[in-house]
Amino acid sequence: MPCPRSSGILLHPTSLPSRGGIGDFGPAAYAFADFLASARQSVWQVLPLGPLGYGDSPYSSTSAFAGNPLLISLDRLAERGWIDRSQLDALPAAIEPVDYSSVFHHKLPLLFEAAHNFVGSAPPNARARFENFRRQNHWWLDDFVLFDALRARFKLKSWNQWPRELTHREPAAIEIFRTELAEDLNTRSAIQFFFYEQWQALRAYCAQHSISTAGDIAIFLNFDSADVWTHPDLFRLTPELEPEAVSGVPPDFFSKDGQRWGNPLYRWDVMKEQGYTWWIDRLRWATRNFEYIRLDHFRGFSQFWEIPADEPTAIHGRWVDGPKDDLFVKVREALGGLPFFAEDLGYITPDVHALRDRLQIPGMAVLQFGFGNAGAHIHLPHTFKPEKVVYTGTHDNNTLRGWWELDATKNERESVRAYVGPCDDGICWGLIRAASTSVANLCIIPLQDVLDLGSEARMNVPSLEGGNWRWRFAADLLRPEVAAKLSALAEVSDRLPHAMPSTEEDWSA
C-alpha cells in the first residue's frame, strides 16, 4: 500500500451529529470533512458500511457489497424533492446515543417512501443514472434486493428458515418471487442507489479537500446474508444448511473465553477452484469506494480459529490454515496491486508477519497496547518502520482517557510518563504527539482521543452483547482550537495533505 506520510481521523459515520437518531451522509458529514480540512488531515477512516445484521455490528453485515440504508441522508433526499421536508421535522433532533430499534422504526419508512417517489417520478437525468447504477452492479444488486425483500416478507427469519424452494434457490421459485416483488425490488434498488450516490458525492467533496477515505473489510460475513444464501457452496454448511463451524478468536487480551463471532467459515478449497472470484469481486468493489482499505483480522488469511458450531464459547477451537499467499497473488493479478493495510493485532505468530511482509502489506500498531511487558513494545514508536499504520486506539479499545482512568495499571502509567514526558495538555495529546511524530507513514487517531473523551465515548466492547456501536458526538466539540492543534502537529511532523487526482464524474446525490 503506497502511502505518503499523512495523518487522519477514525470516525464511523453513525457517530456524526446528524438529525434522525443516527449519523449519516448529510450536512454533518460535510461539516466533519470541513473540520478535517481545517485540521490539515489527509484521511477519514470509517468502519464497514454494509447493512447491519446481528447485534447492529458493522462487522456482521447482511451483504459484502450493499450499503447500510440508515446512513442515507434524508435531508439530501428532501433537497431533491423525493420526500417532503416537513416529514423530517418529527425525527429526533437531540444528539443521543444511537437507538437502533427506534432508528429502524422511524427512518426506514421515510427512506422507502422517498425511494418509491423516486422510482415513480425521477426526471430523465436521474433515471439514467439509476439505470446505469443497476446495469453496472446487477452482479450483486439483483440478489441482494431479492434477499432483502424476502427477509422482510418472512419477518427477518434467517434465510435457511424460509420455504424450502427459496432456501435452495430453485429457479422457478426465484423467478416467481422476482415477478411478484418487482415493485419492492425497484424500491430497494433505488435505496442502494441513494446510498452509493451520497457516499461517492461525499468522497468527491473530501477529495476536493485532499482527504482520502479508508474503508474496512471484515474478513467474515453474517450467516444470514445475501452472499451465503446466494453462494452456499463457498461456505462450510451442513446438508441442512446450518454452519458446521464458525469463526472467532481464542482467549486473549479482550476476553478470557475468547470471542465466538459465529460467522460461517469459508470453503477455501472451493474458492481456489473458482479462482477466488468472489474475493476478487469483493476487493475490487472496495477499491471503487475507498482509497485505502484495512483488512480486518488479517491473521485469518494465514490461519483462522475454527470453532465447532455447537460450542457456546471460543475456548474449544483450533487453528486451521487459510489461503495464505495464494489468494493475494490472484488478487494482485486482478487488481494490479494491493491497496491494503492489515489488522494484525492480538495473537500473531511469525507466519502471519511473514505473510504480510511477503505481500508488502503494512501492519498496525496501537500505542495503548505498548506499555505492558517488554513484548508489547512492538506497539511503541521506537520499534516502527515507515511501513506501519499507527493508532492510539481502535474501535475495540477503550478511549485513551478511559483507559488511563479505568484500565491502565500503575506500571503502564509509569511507563507512559517515562515515554512521553510531561503532558500539560493531558495524556491523550501526549500519546497523539508520540503517534504523529513516529516514522509510521500513516497515523490514525480516533476522534474520541482527539476530543479527550472518557469511556462513555467507547464504540465497542468485544464480546459484550448489546450496547455497542452507539456513540455519537455533539457538533460543538469540533472546536477551531482543536483543528488548529491538529494542523500544527501535522505540519511539524511532515504529515500535511497532498493534492488528490481530480475526477470528472458527476456525483450529484
Describe the structure.
The structure is a single chain. This protein has 18 helices and twelve strands. The chain has 509 residues and is of the alpha/beta class. The chain has a single domain, classed as TIM Barrel (Alpha-Beta Barrel), CATH 3.20.20.80. The strands form two sheets. It has an eight-stranded parallel β-sheet with strand order 9-6-3-2-1-12-11-10. The chain has a four-stranded antiparallel β-sheet with strand order 5-4-7-8. The mean pLDDT is 94.
Task: Give a concise summary.
This protein has helices at 27-38, 74-79, 100-121, 124-153, 164-167, 171-180, 182-208, 226-230, 268-273, 277-287, 299-302, 325-335, 350-359, 400-407, 410-420, 427-436, 447-450, 480-492, and strands at 6-10, 43-45, 212-217, 245-249, 259-264, 292-295, 303-308, 318-321, 340-342, 363-366, 388-391, 442-446. It is an alpha/beta fold. An eight-stranded parallel beta sheet has the order 9-6-3-2-1-12-11-10. A four-stranded antiparallel beta sheet has the order 5-4-7-8.
